[in-house]
């Protein structure tokens, strides 16, 4: 298993997906959270030994129950794309994610499932890490709205049930709102 695959897996974890507008937690939905422009920043830790910071930019389009979201990661070794298509209905989330591999080719789509409600969202899927190769990992994103209008995302990356990496990510609608979170260790 390549370190690059694990690092990318954790980054995908950043799902990254999202950016939270300033709103009450009881208003939380993935569609409103990801619609428009968002940014994120975080750190991935692999096997407790390696740490790498990263950022991402999001462009989301919400229509009805659906959300189409492009997540563009920025790592030390380059940029990677994840493309999400999610449907949020009655507290359930279904959809797919495509992930750019180490050769710049989108792989997938990989099925995504989860839940969404006032307290946040949980998304899970089996797929490759951004910038990775053929290794498949299990990703679990736990996204929680915060009082300051940002959202936290804790990502767990595992294989065969064994945790290999994790990421802590902050999502927000602007670089200015993200800056204080990037300064934290």
What is the secondary structure topology, with strand pairs?
Elements lengths: L2 H11 L16 H5 L1 E11 L3 E14 L2 E10 L2 E12 L2 E9 L5 E12 L2 E8 L9 E9 L5 E9 L2 E11 L2 H8 L3
Antiparallel strand pairs: 1-2, 1-10, 2-3, 3-4, 4-5, 5-6, 6-7, 7-8, 8-9, 9-10
Description:
The protein is mostly beta strands. The chain has a single domain (3-182), classed as Calycin beta-barrel core domain (Lipocalin), CATH 2.40.128. It has 3 helices and 10 strands. The protein has helices spanning 3-13, 30-34, 175-182, and strands spanning 36-46, 50-63, 66-75, 78-89, 92-100, 106-117, 120-127, 137-145, 151-159, 162-172. A 10-stranded antiparallel beta barrel has the order 1-2-3-4-5-6-7-8-9-10. A hairpin with a 2-residue loop joins strand 4 and strand 5. The longest helix has 11 residues, at 3-13. The chain is globular and about 35 Å long. The protein starts with a helix and ends with a helix.
